[in-house]
Specification:
Strand content: 25-35%
Number of helices: 4
Radius of gyration: 14 Å
Helix content: 25-40%
Number of strands: 10
Largest sheet: 8 strands, mixed
Strand order of the largest sheet: 1-10-9-3-5-7-8-2
Length: 149
């Protein structure tokens, strides 16, 4: 078993351990969660057919590893709604700086729900190049992210 440690900026504090789910492209929050939120898919399967890395994969309870979010201005509200419904990822891990909409969704989830998503950004391109779906991710409150395979 090998492991690598990465350090990022804490957006939402928390510690969690979960299986990695990786998207190398931008994450369209609305397109990804639309089916889950509208039609009751409790596993949060990604419904964004344009995201070949995630399409039809379960996002709920996973360590979602992304470069950034893209798309609609509803992105923050979608993340908040997913948390309200218990369909949120275990954590959000960004290689780049988080955008204001995703940050708002993560922060609102932490403040207004019982389902916070620890969120770390600025983990770097090396993080996204290294991590693979199925790896074990451990997130610490100080922004340290351990990737084990």
């Amino acid at each position: 078993m090998s492991e690598r440690i990465f350090k990022g900026r804490v957006v939402v504090k928390g510690s969690v351990s979960a299986e990695a789910l990786v998207s190398k492209g931008g994450f369209n929050t609305l397109a990804s969660y639309q089916h889950s939120l509208m039609f009751g898919d409790k596993k949060g399967k990604c419904s964004d057919q344009n995201n070949k890395d995630l399409y039809k994969k379960e996002m709920a309870g996973k360590a979602l590893c992304l470069p950034q979010t893209i798309g609609s201005t509803t992105g923050g509200l979608v993340l908040y709604c997913a948390s309200c419904m218990g369909r949120q990822p275990a954590c959000l891990l960004f290689s780049k700086e988080i955008d204001s909409l995703a940050a708002a969704g993560a922060i609102l989830s932490a403040v207004w729900t019982d389902n916070p998503m620890p969120t770390i950004d600025s983990l770097g391109e090396e993080f996204l190049s290294y991590v693979q779906s199925g790896d074990r991710i451990s997130v610490m409150e100080d922004g340290t992210v351990k990737v084990e395979r």
